[in-house]
């Protein structure tokens, strides 16, 4: 054994304590760490020849790289839809690395059973029936890709071809209909060989809505003259967290032949709020579902789940045909259900957080985030120079400048807020209007944090866009 590696092994408990102390120090100050940093990255260094050991590596990281890391796990990082990491989830994630289990199969370990138990809990959390079977994947993009891969196989079944054997070309042109699809949907279509251009946008309800017009969706399906299709419905759009009417869309299956995939990356968590659970009524009728866990479940990157009613088709797509993996019998191993053969045990962090806080604890996070989003929305409405672009429906606040909103001006506002270290917001465009969005999904965020974000926005708006003469 290399002497440096042997020395690290001999003092492993001390090394782990050192890392624990370092991490605890970082997390204890996460609330005041800049939500975003523009610090210049250090110049690259050559590959070490002999190495400096784990303690030396930690010290070099602290000196060279730690100052440039953002406070994305903190309470005022409101960009994208980014959760933090609950204490229990962090515990599970550290143990995931310590045990280093390959969660691909049931052979030689109980990790397969732990993942199935966690999937059952999540299924219950979101109000899904036992007809849905799931698997952990890396994020919403992969979850959507897996769901649409199963949908692609279903199309082949309807047309009498095996896509997993003959390829996507055997299908001919595919029709995929959606109102406000996330960008990961078209990315998945590209990866799956269906093609980005096969997405057929369906008109929305109008006004500030991002929900699909179900009547127009029915007309589009009717125009297919019985040809099977894929419909992607949204349970929580990224701009305004709008929800398609899932029950009405599912009811169309009585008249039309289509696979229903629901992108519920973070909207599925509305099921935990009694006041908002009606938004996801009909979710169980979906043929496949995407839910992202490193968003509102607040587990570390990267973790998501996908559910489907047709695991037999999923197995047909992802089955790994290799003698060394043994024959497939009974319940399929997870390596036969996702693109990955080797799989990090992503379920353990979720298992720890669900065990530690239960339904009630995670419901409190959801309810608090919804209340804080409304608080910020009310605050923004009172800031001269800013206006809401849509009602605060759940946990995202979408707003713009009251006058002259352009990408450049909104970008300047976002940079000013980020440079202050107070918050991080991401840009978007809603129905042609450039905007900013603040997404609440972090378990740490409080009313005080929300007011700091509001004040940072008001200060930056005043400094950037108020006429100096008027200001005096």
Automatic annotation (TrEMBL):
Give the highest taxon in the source lineage: Bacteria
Q: Which residues carry this modification: N6-(pyridoxal phosphate)lysine?
A: 295
Q: Which Pfam families match?
A: Pyridoxal_deC
**Ranges for region Disordered:** 27-52
Q: Which family does it belong to?
A: Belongs to the group II decarboxylase family.
What is the protein name stated in its UniProt record?
Answer: Aspartate aminotransferase family protein
Name the cofactor(s) required for activity, per the record. pyridoxal 5'-phosphate
Write down the SUPFAM superfamilies for this protein, in alphabetical order.
PLP-dependent transferases
Q: Which organism is it from?
A: Streptomyces brasiliensis
Q: State if Magnesium is listed as a keyword.
A: no
Q: Name one GO biological process term.
A: carboxylic acid metabolic process
Q: Which UniProt keywords apply?
A: Aminotransferase, Decarboxylase, Lyase, Pyridoxal phosphate, Transferase
MF GO annotations: aromatic-L-amino-acid decarboxylase activity; pyridoxal phosphate binding; transaminase activity
